[in-house]
Each structure stands twice: as structure tokens, then as C-alpha cells.
Amino acid sequence: MIVLALAVLAAALITSTFFTWRKARRSQLPIWDIASKRLAVNMAIPLAAGGFFVLGLLDHSGWNYIAPSCLVFYGLALVNASKYTLTDIRYLGLLEISLGCINMYYPHEGLYFWAAGFGILHIIYGLIMWWKYERS
């Protein structure tokens, strides 16, 4: 599971970086400016805290609460980063936090909540963003 999660994370980072770079190049804008640095820092703080929290859960056999913790901390990172990007990302973050909080009461269903949060919500969010901002 950990290898699969890391592979999905790597694929997401690579594809998002590629598409961001491609759009910046087409718009003749820099990919790494002060706004993107602020976005990265404000997203990294809750993600790093969540990563250490999840490592603590692993160390103390809190397996059932890893999925909800990942969803909550990722949602917090999105809400925190939304100050430096499209405000629409704030809603995705709030949905991720909500899903993680609900998952706390159904800890044995973590994989389904992960699929909903990191899969379905991102697909829907991506379609909405494409429809709103990219559609010609």
C-alpha cells in the first residue's frame, strides 16, 4: 500500500508539474515566482506536520487513522494554500477535511475514503476547473 501511495504521489507531482510548466510556457510566464514560492511554503507546512503525525500513528500502530489523517492534513494544506492560488481550491480542501472527519467514524473503510478524496474529488475538481478556466 505504501509503495502504491508513493507511486501515485510521484505520478501526480510529475503530471501537475508538467502541465503547469506547459501552461506557463504558453502564457510566457515564469513557473517559479514569489506567488508560487508562497504557495509551496504554505502548502508544505500542513503537509509536513501531517506526514510526521502519520509516521507517529504508524509507530504506535494507529493504522485505522492513517487514511483520515491524510485526508484532513491534505485538506488543511489546500485551504492554507488557497490564499495564493484560485479560491476554488479552498472548496476542495474543505471537502477533503470533511471526508477525513467522517472517515474517523468509519476507520476500517479508509481505502474507500482515500479513493473518494484523492480520486473522485480530484477528478470532479479537475473537470470543474477545466470547464471554468481552460475550456475554449
Question: Keywords for this structure?
Answer:
single chain, 136 residues, mainly alpha
Structure, explained:
This protein is mainly alpha-helical and about 140 residues long. It has one domain (about 35-135). It contains five helices and no strands. Helix 3 (about 65-80) packs antiparallel against helix 4 (about 90-105). The mean pLDDT is about 90.
How would you summarize what this structure contains?
With 136 residues, this protein is mainly α. The chain is built from 5 helices and no strands. The protein has one domain (37-134).
Question: SSE layout and pairings?
Answer:
Layout (H helix, E strand, L loop, with lengths): L1 H26 L6 H26 L6 H16 L6 H16 L6 H25 L2
Helix pairs in contact: 2-3, 3-4, 3-5, 4-5
List the total number of helices.
5
Order of helices and strands: HHHHH
Q: Roughly what is the average pLDDT, rounded to an integer?
A: 91
| Class based on secondary structure composition and strand pairing | mainly alpha
Radius of gyration: 16 Å
Largest beta-sheet characterization: none
Shape estimate: globular
In percent terms, what proportion of residues is strand?
A: under 5%
Count of discrete domains: 1
As a percent range, the share of helical residues equals over 70%
Uncertain runs are none
Report the span from N to C terminus: 39 Å
Counted beta strands: 0
